[in-house]
């Protein structure tokens, strides 16, 4: 019986278990190429592959470095990939594999195909191979080398391996069908010559197997049962099966299944473009908090649970679509909403002197960290004194209609504290506001208000002499346009604003690095451990409280 509540991949696995296709084995793999850091699209694949393994008794997921192209791969990427998968919550145990460990075996399989007359060495340069291959509407033409004898092919192939030829001089191709409607089947290249050092194999090899040849055989060698990849590989499936069939590997063989990749607007998810952002210094490295990389998200303060919930919300589909970035932000907030204590921090301070509060006196207020609808409880002492800071934006001399914060002669409630009234505005010679003089009403203490006063606005504040100076980094979306056409035009130049003169209440400063907070009315923030080690409290904005983006676009008339 198929359980229709499950995604289509799990339904297939259930059927295989029922039929006993692989006995009771369920073995998946996640096969990144170590040529860049993992991004949130990869996270989706990680949750699918490792998630499936976790769901079935005895299920296993291999982490395999798909490292058969020596030109862009390195150890930095291998280490980053391992770190990121661990952070996403998957312990690999000893299930770490490298396709490059199979080079010798793969060579033997290739030789086997040559001996069978199913592969040949071709002398055409790359562009001519492409030209000979035809088009979707036109069949390809055989090259003059297609009918080389097995002996000649074996000799040339071993010469390729021995380094007797230059890059591009020869390739090994599968001998399939140049008229096949599937272009992938028109005698695809299996091996090419690359005189390039491999980060693990050194100079042992100068021929390297192509993805299609490497992948299916690596799956077979590792005993993978379900080889799950993204839709762009749909046409490669026929070749996947052909290679396993012609190499005559034992049955049952692994099978390939495709799902829709994750696409998100306002960001990029191709490693090539991410690398370009890093190299051209649009961002500060692969783990810049603006990057959609797992390392970037971690650095920003996003939790692995939020990434998981988001990926689950997108589901596993068979048709491609683009997910709105706002959906991701929703899951980030949703997770932090119940976890992050709410505290007070003023980003752009304006001094307020409360003239009727005694000089030198501190009153400790008991301020709860969480609202009533959150299961967590707890509170802290919040000092109140004669001089405080409020947000510059929370005061205006020319209030528009519906402005419920502080204005000359107006009243506002200070969160967890009292109602204050603005008595006087002190300005400099240019009319710039230096400070406000206010009075407070002792009968309006939060929770014990006996005044009967009603004010519409509540603002955040900190006690000037108790607050600590912190730096805040306001991150926004990487792109200002939904999709990337060219970096220069589309990268959001306001994706990072640094505020160096912010003031946070004392409890924030006592928290360990890695703490997350909701700064009331301004957003969710993360005390960045990396910066902490450099001796400065730096808080990254993880996400705003509400979606400000659509409002900005509206204002711009977009
Ligand atoms: P990119 O397109 O970013 O360069 P890639 O597909 O070349 O990525 P790989 O390292 O080959 O990167 O990917 C490893 C695995 O992650 C593959 O199985 C691939 O299908 C999957 N994957 C890559 N991007 C996405 C995505 N956006 N959504 C879901 N899965 C993805
Ligand atoms: Mg790939």
Shape: elongated
Quaternary structure? single chain
The CATH homologous superfamily of the largest domain corresponds to HUPs
| Count of β-strands | 28
Structural class: alpha/beta
CATH topology of the largest domain: Rossmann fold
Low-confidence stretches: none
User: Count the helices. How many?
Assistant: 16
CATH architecture of the largest domain: 3-Layer(aba) Sandwich
What's the rounded overall pLDDT mean? 95
Structure, described:
The longest helix is centred in the N-terminal third of the chain and has 16 residues, at 40-55. The mean pLDDT is 95. The protein has 16 helices and 28 strands. The two termini are 51 Å apart. Helix 7 (211-222) crosses helix 8. Helices cover 28% and strands 24% of the residues. The protein is elongated and about 100 Å long. Strands 13-26-27-28-24-25-14 form a 7-stranded mixed sheet. It has a 7-stranded mixed sheet with strand order 22-19-20-21-15-18-23, with no helix packed on it. With 558 residues, the chain is an alpha/beta fold. It has 3 domains: 8-259, Rossmann fold (3-Layer(aba) Sandwich); 342-463, Ribosomal Protein L25, Chain P (Beta Barrel); 469-555, Ribosomal Protein L25, Chain P.
């Amino acid at each position: 019986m198929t359980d229709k509540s499950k995604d289509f991949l799990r339904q297939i696995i259930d059927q295989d278990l029922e039929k006993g296709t692989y006995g009771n084995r369920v073995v998946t793999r996640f096969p990144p190429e170590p040529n860049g850091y993992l991004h949130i699209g990869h996270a989706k694949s990680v949750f699918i592959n490792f998630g499936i393994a976790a769901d079935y008794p005895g299920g296993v997921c291999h982490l395999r470095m798909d490292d058969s192209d020596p030109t862009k791969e390195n150890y930095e990427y291998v280490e980053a990939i391992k770190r990121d998968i661990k952070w996403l919550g998957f312990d690999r145990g000893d299930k770490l594999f490298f396709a490059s460990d199979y080079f010798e075996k793969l060579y033997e399989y290739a030789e086997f195909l040559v001996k069978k007359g199913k592969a040949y060495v071709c002398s055409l340069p790359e562009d001519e191979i492409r030209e000979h291959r035809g088009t979707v509407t036109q069949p390809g033409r055989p090259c003059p080398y297609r009918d080389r004898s097995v002996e000649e092919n074996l000799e040339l192939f071993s010469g390729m391996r021995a380094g007797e030829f230059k890059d591009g001089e020869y390739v090994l191709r599968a001998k399939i069908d140049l008229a096949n409607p599937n272009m992938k089947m028109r005698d695809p290249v299996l091996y090419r010559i690359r005189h390039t050092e491999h980060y693990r194999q050194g100079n042992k090899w100068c021929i390297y197997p192509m993805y299609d040849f490497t992948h299916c055989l690596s799956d077979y060698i590792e005993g993978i049962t379900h080889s799950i990849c993204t839709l762009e590989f749909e046409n490669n499936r026929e070749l996947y099966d052909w290679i396993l069939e012609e190499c005559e590997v034992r049955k049952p063989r692994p099978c390939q299944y495709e799902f829709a990749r994750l696409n998100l607007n306002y960001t990029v998810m191709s490693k090539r473009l991410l690398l370009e952002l890093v190299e051209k210094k649009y961002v500060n490295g692969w783990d810049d908090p603006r990057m959609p990389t797992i390392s970037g998200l971690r650095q920003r303060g996003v939790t692995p649970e939020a990434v998981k919930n988001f990926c689950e919300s997108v589901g596993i589909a068979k048709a491609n679509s683009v997910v709105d970035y706002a959906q991701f932000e929703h899951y980030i907030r949703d997770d932090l909403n119940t976890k992050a204590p709410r505290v007070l921090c003023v980003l752009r301070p304006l001094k307020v002197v409360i003239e009727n509060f005694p000089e030198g006196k501190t009153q400790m207020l008991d301020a709860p960290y969480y609202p009533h609808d959150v299961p967590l409880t707890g509170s802290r002492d919040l000092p109140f004194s004669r001089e405080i800071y409020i947000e510059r934006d929370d005061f205006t001399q020319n209030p528009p209609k519906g402005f419920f914060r502080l204005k000359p002669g107006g009243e506002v409630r200070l969160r967890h504290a009292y109602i204050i009234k603005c008595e006087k505005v002190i300005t400099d010679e240019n009319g710039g506001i230096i400070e406000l003089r206010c009075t407070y009403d002792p009968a309006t203490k939060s929770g014990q208000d006996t005044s009967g006063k009603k004010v519409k606005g509540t603002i955040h504040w900190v006690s000037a002499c108790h607050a600590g100076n912190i730096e805040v980094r306001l991150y926004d979306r990487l792109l200002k346009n939904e999709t990337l056409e060219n970096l220069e035009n589309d990268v959001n130049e306001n994706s990072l604003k640094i505020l160096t003169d912010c003031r946070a209440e004392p409890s924030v400063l006592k928290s360990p690095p890695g703490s997350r907070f909701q700064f009331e009315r301004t957003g969710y923030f993360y005390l960045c451990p990396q910066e902490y080690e450099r001796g400065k409290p730096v808080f990254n904005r993880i996400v705003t409280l509400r979606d400000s983006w659509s409002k900005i676009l509206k204002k711009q008339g977009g």
